[in-house]
Design goal:
Length: 174
Amino acid sequence: MRKEECFFLGKIVKKYSFKGELLVKLDTDDPEQFLEMESVFVDQRGHLVPFFIEELSLHKSQLLRIKFEEIDSEETADPLLNHDLYLPLDLLPELTGNKFYYHEIIGFTVSDVTHGNIGTITGVNDSTAQALFIIDYKGKEVLVPITDDFIDTVDRDEKNILLNLPEGLLEIYL
């Protein structure tokens, strides 16, 4: 399995018990949806390695307490600390309406109610305080904050996002 075919689930943050149990900080608003997993992929030096799950439970509502098969001591759990967990993309719950996953909108056309066609989404910058659409506008990079206030509609069939940008935001780039 390649990383491009998976989504980031979370990170192993610490050991829980001397029996090899681990705590995972999940990257989700709904951790309960992942309580039925049978396996996950662990990133080990850039390679995704499957690990089968023996037991799963929530720990303090946002952490996942996980017990892998064949990991039965602190010594066997230690090498997994601070490693990322992944699942195949087809296990992502489907979103509807104006909600979307960042990876699914790459290549979407972006239009504005005032300016018409702006360009194509080439990426998303989520390393800033406010996530940003990265849009290619005639060879120029345009950054637009991803906020519900600006998004009118997301049309998955037409691969189009209609924005209602505040006056002056787009003019910074034009």
